[in-house]
Amino acid sequence: MKKNMPCAKLLGFLALGLATTVSFTPANAQDRYRERPPVVVSPDLTAPWLMQLGAAPSQAAPRYRTAAPQPQYYQPQAQPRRSQQARQYLFPPAPSRAARPARPQQGAQQVAMRRPNLPVIQGKIEPQFLPQTVSYETQYPAGTIVIDTNNRFLYLVQAGGQAMRYGVGVGKPGFEWAGEHKVTRKAEWPTWIPPQEMITREAAKGHYLPARMDGGPENPLGARAMYLGSTLYRIHGTNAPWTIGSAVSSGCIRMRNEDVTDLYERVNVGTRVIVI
């Protein structure tokens, strides 16, 4: 009996402790969570973060804007007034009815209104054959036309030892000629009537010429013609300006249309023509 006493006491103490724990634990839990702690909301939502960073917020910022932002409208700035000269440059006035070019009549052929629309091969006309004023010492008086067929130049003699020089096309081998004549007639956009010997000659080569061709851009005589004496030779324009500077004609002196038009305005019927 004495040997079992320690075990009985031990069991009694454990039972007493368990009863005490079971009886007091629910009471302690209810006392602890009976009232919930108050929830504190900071007026500045960034304050807790600033506190964690070690800096205190300077002043609580409002959560919402008190007033909507005012809309911004574009206001154009005043432009400086342009002068009358600047306005005319930017907005040129329309030409008056009196200043407008007159509409050409039906059938009329004027070089200012009908410009030949021909294919010009760029680079084929060398610069020396373009019109220019040059020094020219000669025994012929001013106003005389001198044609240098060897060098393919036509000179309109002027006073003071100068001349207007134009490039020309001349007669091909077998059709060269030289002499002195006068301008006996002038024509704008002349009609071309090939001589019978030319028609026969070209037909033998397989080229069939028309008996007559009215003036126009396709006409071989071009925009102007100046007839020399009673011959069939003329100083005229061309529908093949790239041939200027060559010996390709049947004896006539051919010029670019713009050049023969310029010469046409400078000379009159009766002008002396020297072909060398």
Would you mind describing this structure in some detail?
This protein is of the alpha/beta class. The chain has a domain at about 130-275: L,D-transpeptidase catalytic domain-like, CATH 2.40.440.10. It has helices spanning about 5-30, 45-55, 85-90, 195-205, 255-265, and strands spanning about 130-135, 145-150, 155-160, 160-165, 170, 180-190, 225-230, 235, 245-250, 255, 270-275. The strands form 2 sheets. The protein has a 9-stranded mixed sheet with strand order 1-4-3-2-11-6-7-8-10, covered by helices on one side. Strand 2 and strand 3 (about 155-160) form a beta hairpin. It is extended and about 140 Å long. It starts with a helix and ends with a strand.
Per DSSP, the total helix count is 5
Q: What is the C-alpha radius of gyration, as a whole number of Å?
A: 56 Å
CATH superfamily of the domain at 129-275: L,D-transpeptidase catalytic domain-like
| CATH class bucket of the domain at 129-275 | Mainly Beta
Regions with little confidence, pLDDT below 50 for 5+ residues? 21-25, 55-66, 85-123
Mean pLDDT figure: 74
The N- to C-terminal Cα distance equals 172 Å
CATH topology of the domain at 129-275: L,D-transpeptidase catalytic domain-like
Determine the structural class based on helices, strands and strand pairing.
alpha/beta
CATH architecture of the domain at 129-275: Beta Barrel
Order of helices and strands: HHHEEEEEEHEEEEHE
Total DSSP E strands: 11
Shape: extended
**Lateral arrangement of strands in the main beta sheet:** 1-4-3-2-11-6-7-8-10
Beta-strand residue percentage? 15-25%
